[in-house]
Design brief:
binds zinc ion; single chain; three-stranded antiparallel beta sheet; TIM Barrel; eight-stranded parallel β-barrel; globular; alpha/beta
């Protein structure tokens, strides 16, 4: 079925003049430009893990790194090329023989070679004239072709280069055998109309596929990449989560979803894996994804306002451009001060509490008021808070309906003691207790819980965020657990990190065993 966006009359009319391709090739540079993100350095095994997942998700080309930059980089690229993936594995090389030799030695399928062409780079960086640059570019392309590899050629800082000279450079490298040319907007100065114009001009002269590489200095990397496709570009460079030098590159998830959902342009990406890939890259690079990041952010499909939550519960497309499942996300109704009764009723239902059954209409009105009052205090309302409010209002114990419950926890820590936690759990009304040591109180507490629960349930991921500032910051803990063929995510918030961690893990265990 055609996505709903594509039947939008305004978009259809606006696109009538474009000759759009049916397919756009995705060149992922997370492992090269993405790794140039300040503060990011991946080990060879981490690069390999990302490459395996980029291949799995279906990117056409993986730029695995800049081989000449270090021995570790060469080790990583060799590990990647040794796996014989479906994706084309590419290595970056300056238009220099040594760079090319090292890339060839890493076993890549293709080489992305570049030399700067703009007046600024010619004068201050390369100290070369126009002719010398063309000669170097041509020699590099011929040298790579002599090794039997595919070549993608980039005129670095293309978008600040004189157009007639840029065309001349590209024509020369195509004559020398370049298989694709790439147009880097190295410092992100393009705007969509200018990018569209540039690609249209290049299309008149260049007969090999045209690619673009957009940087996000003005926040326009994705818009410029899309405009390039409108102008005739057949390939886009992107990075997972928009990582990259300075403000980053075009975000893969945003660019390909726009092309696919709005323009109907296909690619090989298994979009339902996008959020998982984003989380993996965030975990390995240590660069947290902002919650309001398009497509893969924590809030991309979260609704808090009463009006929005009501609309979404009636028909999801009222306040969502696409279904969250398409990108591996889930719709979330967040409770807070803007929440309305519809959303709270839906949340109670999700927690197994039916209004009219366990909760009377008057009690429900009281629950709504209490949730809003809590939201007014600026507190994030968790499932545990909702359960506590419902229990208090209805004078019923809902918690005991949970299979596993925390009865007691005590932790001991300090500079002269080994952090130790004693935990008492009630499992189907039976009391279990144990103590464990750990590297810190959280580690000890979670080890104690896991030792009671046994090996069948495993803690796969643990993340902690400070929601508010100060020493009394509210800590939000998010955990991923795996067991009995299920994988669940659970979270809890508390001023006490140990309590938040324990509550999140116990909540997750209950989700698995229910
Ligand atoms: O931004 C840039 O110009 C680059 C080149 C190496 C293509 O990353
Ligand atoms: Zn770049």
């Amino acid at each position: 079925m055609e996505p709903y966006i594509q039947s939008n009359e305004i978009i259809k009319k606006a696109m009538e003049s474009f000759k759009l391709p049916k397919y756009v090739t995705v060149f992922d540079t997370t492992l090269r430009d993405g790794e140039q993100t300040p503060g990011v350095s991946l080990t060879p095994d981490e690069k390999l893990e990302i490459a395996i997942n980029l291949n799995k998700i279906g990117v056409d080309v993986i730029e695995a790194g800049f081989p000449v930059s270090s021995a570790g980089e060469q080790e990583a690229i060799k590990k990647i090329t040794s796996l014989g993936m479906d994706s084309e594995i590419c290595g970056l090389a300056r238009a220099v023989k040594k760079d090319i030799d090292v890339a060839v030695d890493c076993g890549v399928d293709s080489i992305h070679t570049f030399i700067a062409t703009s007046p600024l780079h010619r004068k201050y960086k390369l100290k070369m004239d126009k002719e010398e640059i063309i000669n170097r570019a041509v020699e590099a392309v011929e040298y790579i072709k002599d090794h039997g590899l595919k070549v993608e050629f980039s005129a670095e800082d293309a978008t600040r280069t004189e157009l007639d000279y840029l065309v001349e450079v590209y024509k020369n490298v195509v004559d020398a055998g370049a298989d694709r040319i790439n147009v880097p907007d190295t410092v992100g100065v393009m705007v969509p109309n200018a990018m569209y114009y540039l690609i249209k001009e290049l299309k008149k002269e260049i007969k090999v596929p045209i690619s673009v590489h957009c940087h996000n200095d003005f926040g326009l990397a994705v818009a410029n990449s899309v405009a390039a496709v409108e102008g005739g570009a057949e390939q886009i460079h992107c990075t997972v989560n928009g990582l990259g030098e300075r403000a980053g590159n075009a975000a893969l998830e945003e660019a390909i979803m726009t092309l696919k959902m709005v323009y109907g342009i296909e690619n090989r990406i298994k979009t339902e894996k996008l959020t998982e890939l984003s989380n993996l890259v965030s975990k390995l690079t240590g660069i947290k994804t902002q919650p309001n990041k398009a497509i893969v952010g924590e809030n991309s499909f979260a609704h808090e306002s009463g009006i929005h939550a009501h609309g979404v519960l009636a028909h999801a497309l009222t306040y969502e451009p696409i279904a969250p499942e398409i990108v591996g996300q889930k719709r979330k109704i967040i409770l807070g001060k803007h929440t309305g009764a519809h959303a709270i009723k839906a949340k109670l239902k999700e927690l197994g509490i039916e209004v009219g059954e366990k909760v009377s209409e008057e009690q429900f009105a009281e629950i709504v008021a209490r949730i809003k009052a809590l939201g007014d205090k600026g507190k994030m309302i968790t499932d545990m808070d909702v359960v506590a409010i419902v229990e208090d209002v209805t004078k019923r114990t809902l918690k005991s309906e949970r299979i596993v419950d925390l009865e007691q926890i005590a932790v001991m820590t300090g500079n002269k003691v080994i952090p130790t936690a004693s935990v008492v759990l009630k499992i189907r009304n039976e009391i279990h207790m144990t103590s464990e040591i750990g590297v810190g109180p959280v580690d000890a507490a979670l080890k104690a819980i896991c030792s009671i629960i046994g090996e069948k349930i495993k803690l796969k991921e643990y993340h902690i965020n400070a929601i508010t500032g100060g020493t009394d910051a509210l800590a939000e803990v998010v955990v991923k657990l795996e067991g009995y063929g299920k994988e669940v995510t659970a979270k809890a918030a508390n001023e006490d990190i140990v309590r938040a961690s324990v509550e999140a893990v116990i909540d997750g265990i209950n989700k698995i065993v229910e």
